[in-house]
Every structure is written in structure tokens, then in C-alpha cells.
Amino acid sequence: MRGTARAEETRPSALGRLVRLADSDAAAAGVLLAATLVALVWANVPGSTYEATWHTPFAVRLGDAVLEMDLRHWVNDALMAVFFCLISLEVKRDLVLGEFRDTRRIRIPVVAALAGLAVPALVFLAVTGLSDQPGEARAAWGVVISTDTAFVLGLLAVVGRSVPVNLRAFVLALSVVDDVGALAVIAVAYTDDLTLLPLAVAVVGLVAVLALRRLRVWRGWAYLLLAVPIWLGVLASGVHPTVAGVAIGLLLPVNPFSAEEVDAAEAAARAYGRTPTSSGAHRAVLSLTRSVSVNERGQRLFRPWVNLAVVPVFALANAGVVLSGETLAAAATSGLTWAIVAGLVVGKVVGVTSASLAAVRLGLGRLPSGLFPRHVIAAGVLSGIGFTISLFIIDLALDDPVLAAEARIGVLAASVVAALLALAAVAVVRAVDRSRLPGRQRLARPVRADRDHVRGRVGAPMELVVYASFVFTNAGRTAEVVDELRQVLGEDLVFVYRHLLTDDPASARAAEAAEAAHAQSRFWPMHDAMAARAGRLDDRTIRRCAVDAGLNLARVDDALASGAHADRVREDDDDARAMALDEPPRFFVNGQLYDGPFDVGAMRTALEQTAGRSRSRAVPAAAPADAPAEDALPVRAPAAREPVDPEPVA
């Protein structure tokens, strides 16, 4: 009975399953696609009420003040502001804590996005000019400048591990910079009347958001109260009100987890566990809430609503276009329709790809780790999936219903063609990634059991060496990928960890702390503890990891203060620099530099294809009689229960 009760307790609720579904990009794209199909069917049934329904007026009254719009504009202007706020929150987090906190990496998506705005617009204008389209049609050049983030991320989620993990971050940054640029175009090119006083009110509200952030206000409702007048001010000014969502999302505070706040939350939870009272529960909830930034709480709050309600309702309200033989024939011969298809399908890939590769060649920035020109081309093809902003601008730019219908058909056709081409591009990239052997750069220093940090048996058929840093945001992902490879390949794989430092001073401190753990035969427990806190390590957190790993903290402090292990860390880092390894993580597969996606399937293929070839000529060392047992699978056990480091005490 007790086992049954426990199973019932752990069974996810319907709400929990719904939240997990909302967190899935693939599910979100599926719901969006279903809503689009429903809109098309609804608009094409005999006696359709589609247009009449979405033009139904709806008013909000407060005293003498009245705000009235039809249902379509409530969706496009109000609900979609929440969508763009969520996207801005995700980008802001990537800029501050994620892959793009290195400004050299965000430069490439920015340059690519700007070219992805300009080149499609030029292609559109060229085609409409050659086909002698009327001025109203040529004015709709903004239709081809934006990428649909929801569809693109959903498509990436469907292909899953077929692409490197950093491709999603690159495409997300690209599409959001693209969307921000598109919204700026809307504000400038498609705003007929600009009223400065309401815009000034909105600016004052944004300044107030900045003030709250400076004052370290952590309660979300304070920012939510300001969001309403900001949105109303932007709406009344004549600027598209979704700009308010973008601005607020970029300004909300985001910060790494504070060790002090996490400790306070843990203490409050323990206090409630000892003495469960309503006041104790309230304090524990407040402490836990305060330890998570407003940005991340906002993402958690908005994502289910955006994925399962906001974006599908938008598609339902905007994607319905009559697809009769007459309208399809007119679209097939319409220069406007073909201009949209050419702009999105051709202009996007040309603009994004050429600008990205040119920026890298000119030294303006670097691609994220694991991405190469073939992945940039795939990203360019993906960016041709235009939907959300495209339909927005059709509504703003085209009053003629015939032109609007032709434009909507062009957007739908371009999105379908771009999606099919994107799937083909991803398939080609996946095939190339899996067929690529590791690079020609060979591992300079052979693996030695008496020197290196080794998991597995030196001399195993397959050898994986990583040069990495604990402060890099991908450290946790690196550990997950390696753990899964070890689970799959078992004793046939030996894994070796070496240091490659970043510009962050905490990188060297963490590496030296790991070497201090090695001196106590606890390298791997310390490795796992720090990898679990990737991207948010400071001196206090490093010491906490040492405690979690079961180390003698006084010995660790002494080693860090004296720099006892600095030479050992520098030796690894110097080796990495000599091999032209720029930043972590960089892998060597069977002694050769790996130049493929950061993905379990592709790395396993590379390991198995090159197994038995000349590697780094690993040098085993006779283990002392009292040496601890080798690390056992599974490797991600809690640090306190982890087998001791297999390495001899230095």
C-alpha cells in the first residue's frame, strides 16, 4: 500500500503534464501548425464566419475611458506583446548568462540579422519592380524581413539531436534580433501618426522599470504594474504596441544565482521542515522566489501561455485566407506573391549566410562552439520561415483585400517551402557531421594515467579527451554528453579531462581547486559538483563544491592561497594554446581534434569509426597497491556517494 501511495504521489498531475508540454518547442510548433490549419479550414468552409468573428468589436471601460478594438487587434496588439516579451527575456538571459555573454559571439547574429532584414527587402523590391506591381504592393516590403521564431524553434526541436545544441541559441538570437529590427521597421515605416505625449508616458514607465532594477526589486508584480501603462502609452502613440513587450523583456533583471540567497532559501526550507507553520511556509516561498531572477520567473510564467494559447490564437486570427481556384490562380501569376516567396526563401538564406561568413572572415566575431559554415547555411534556410511578423505587416501595409490575400498566400507558400528546404538542409548537415572524421590536429601530449584525470581504463579501444573549463556555460552539458557516451560505450571508452582556461578569473580558481581535489583523490566528485553549477561559479561556490565533494576545506584553501597547483593547470592550458584551441570545450577523439556537432550520436559515430587507429599513444601507469577503485558507472551519482578518484595522490 505504501508503495502504491508513493507511486500515486509521484504521478504527474494533468497540470504538470500540460506545463511540460508547454516547455516543448516541438509541441508548441505542433499546436501552432494545428491552429493555422484550423484557420484555413474555417476561412474556406461555405458560409464562413471567419472574418466576421475576428472583426467583432470588444471594449474595456474604466469610468469614462474606453479602449475598443476588434478581436483580431486585441490578439495582434495585446496578446502578441506577451509573446515578444518572452522572446526578449530568453535573449536577455543568453546575453547575460548564456552563450552570448561573450560579445564577440553576439556580433555575428546581429550582423546576420541586419543582412537578413536588408537583402530580402531588396529582393522583394527587385521582383515587384520587374513585375510592375502597384505602389501599395511595393510598400509591403516589410513582409519578408522577419523570421517566425516559434516555427523555427519547433522545427529544431523536431530534429532534436541531429544538430548541435548551440545552433538553437544562434538561431534564437538571430530570429529575435531579426524580430526587433522588424518591429523597428514597423514603428518607422508603418506608423502613420506618431503622438509624442503617450510615447513619453511609455518612456517614463521604462525608466521606472530601470529604477526598480537598480533598487534590486525582486517582486514580479511591481514590474507587471508598470507594464500596463507602458503598453497603453505605446499603443496610443501610434507605434506598434508589441514594441512595449520587447522593451520590457530586455529591461527586466537577470542575474546568476547568488550563493547567499540560495543559502537563505535552503535555511528557510529547513526551518519550515522542522517547524511547519503557515508563516514558515510563507518565508520559505519568499526566499525561494527571491533566489530566482525576475527574468527566469517571467519565462516560467509566460511560456505555457505563449506556447499553448497566445501564438496559436494569433495564427487562428490571422492565417485564414480563402484558397479558391480563383485566388490560387491569381496568386500564382501575382508578382507580389512571388516577391514574398523570393524574399523569404532566397533573400534570407543569402543575406544571413553571406553576412555571417563575411563577419567571421573579417574578424568581427566568432561562431559559437560546435558551429561551422554548414550550420550557418542551415540557419539561413531556417530563417526563411516567416509567419508572425509577416502577417502583422500584411495587415498594416495592404488595404486592398485582393493584394492582402495574395500576400498571405505568398507567406504560407514561402513558409512551407522554407520549412521543407530547412529539413533537407538539416539532413545534409547531419550526414556531413556524421561522416566527418576528427580534424587533422593531433593531441600533442599523450594521455598518462599517472598525470591525467581519467575515467575508464587507459588503453581502452576508444579515447575521448576534453579541454574544458568549469566556468564555461557548457560545462554542465559537456558532463551530460560524456556521461551518456560512457553509459553507451562502457569499458570501451576512456575519458580524460584537461584544463582550458577562459578570461574569467574564476576559471583558473576552479581549475586549481579541481587539482587540489585531485591531491585528495577526489577529482571526479569535485568535477561533478562544479559542472553542476556551470556558469555561476565564484570563490564561495567553489568552496561549497569542495564541501559537497567531501574535501578537506582547509587543505583546499591553503592550496589556492599558495598557488600550489597553478603550474599543473598552466601546463594543460599552454598545451591547448599551442594546439590553437581557442575556447572550451574542445574534444579529441582517438587522438585527433573533433570537428563535429556537440551531440552524443555524432560523437559516438566518430569514436567508433576511428577506434583502433593511432591515437595519442596513451601511457598506462602501474597503479599503487592501495590505489582506489576506478570510477564506476553510472557516473552522475551524488558527490557524497561517488567512488573516490582513481588517481594516485599527488
From TrEMBL:
The UniProt keyword set, sorted, is:
Antiport, Cell membrane, Ion transport, Membrane, Sodium, Sodium transport, Transmembrane, Transmembrane helix, Transport
Question: Where are the annotated segments for Disordered?
Answer: 609-650
Which biological process annotations from GO are given for this protein?
Answer: regulation of pH
**Does the keyword Cell membrane feature in the UniProt annotation?**
yes
Its domain of life reads Bacteria
Which family would the database say this protein is a member of?
Belongs to the NhaA Na(+)/H(+) (TC 2.A.33) antiporter family.
What PANTHER family has UniProt attached to this entry?
NA(+)_H(+) ANTIPORTER NHAA, SODIUM ION/PROTON ANTIPORTER NHAA-RELATED
This chain's protein is named Na(+)/H(+) antiporter NhaA
Species this chain originates from: Geodermatophilus normandii
